[in-house]
């Protein structure tokens, strides 16, 4: 037998090698072509697709920043809501599906419109018309709006329908979980998301977001080509605005001022709490209040913060400032005296006290306890009017606060050159000028803080999406009066709390309290004259007076059941008590030293 040659073994192997070589050559050709298309000549092909109208883009929506209280509790936040958009050209054709036996079924647009309407709560004919009207106007129409701002639940139900011609661009909705609590301060946004009032508007630079942009390729029937989406411009969420407000305290005081306004028949009222050593506003409750979720339910005049925008005559609360100015300027001492009757003519001015009495030899303390207009006027005669004016400006009168709240008023402080004799005396006891609530509490904060005026603040800071913190309030105070003067005036105000006629109504066991009341006449906005039998009543003070921590002010506009400062006493006592509990302030270890009323 002849030996077998190797030729028969090599022929199949050779064929295999040749076949593999051919396959590899073909694959290499494809790779080279792909590299040519996607890398070498990529720009040319992208330009071609753009020219054919195959590239599109969509907005990548960012969220407006949240507003939180001092403890991080959310006061305002954004939630996603969705617009429902439709491609009329595709929708008009209906939806065609195939079953397992490859049988086609077409669901017409009117039937689909009814399904959509059942979810959005619209009339089916209205939804149907959004497509039929668009196609009638333009058979190639690719856009129409079915509904705006549907909820997340509605959005999910619409997505579940699996309709390829629907799209759902998100829209940021604004939610205020606590409703009217702090609403006058927080403000609100419009239906388009634009800030309209309050801190929403004032701090929009912090809260505003920047939408991004995503570009992608799509087929002629509108289907997005997988893998073609690219973020052209990243979306940037708004920052978090942290307030100085304590939400729980704000809630309590909101209920309290609403109750007090209604009980006294007042037009409106406010309760303000300021941290004495920092100037931070821990609560500012107002009534009537606006619910930012539905601002149109509140009258336009009550949608802002009247505490900042509506100045009033402070009345006798100003006597503490006149006293402080006289002591600090060296014009008199705590032991100085004046003789004052219930009604006197001073120059060509007439000054009266709220009650009739014969001549009393008053100390500055006595003037404050009895709230004598005549007495404080005679002490004011010892102070050069230019000096008094300069001090009032240092206390913050005549200028807006550091908060610069939208629409904030500077009040009215006429220049000295405009003071006639009556104005000279009236300004000593809080008439002939006007102040805002922040101006008044800022002045008392100065007295409570050893004579150092701290800039008032409502915002702790803004934390941007990248963690950067800005808008931190200034901690730099201004020495307006000496610490000795502040201490002397504080002791006098303590004696108002212990010796005054409202002592039993405002006492808080265990705490030394400093207070002053004020009843200011109200100017008729229509005539410019004083409105008959109409007053602003105020009670303002701080505690513990031996180491002041918090300033509290209650202000009522035109109380009717009680028209004197006594109208504010119940709310003041409850408010200050709650503040001391909220911040766990240690009780005073001493009692108020009694100062003489008369010389």
Folded structure, characterized:
It is elongated and about 135 Å long. The N terminus is likely disordered. It is built from 20 helices and 24 strands. The protein is of the alpha+beta class. The protein folds into 2 domains: 161 residues, Alpha-Beta Complex (Penicillin-binding protein 2a (Domain 2)), CATH 3.90.1310.10; 336 residues, Beta-lactamase. Strands 2, 3, 6, 7, 8, 11, 19 and 20 form an 8-stranded mixed beta sheet that branches. It has a 5-stranded antiparallel beta sheet with strand order 13-12-24-23-22, with helices on both faces. The chain has a 3-stranded antiparallel beta sheet with strand order 1-9-10, with no helix packed on it. InterPro entries: Beta-lactam/transpept, Beta-lactam/transpept-like, PBP_dimer, PBP_dimer_sf, PCN-bd_Tpept. It is an enzyme of class 3 (hydrolase). One of its GO terms (molecular function) is serine-type D-Ala-D-Ala carboxypeptidase activity. It is found in: Membrane. This is Cell division protein FtsI (Penicillin-binding protein 3).
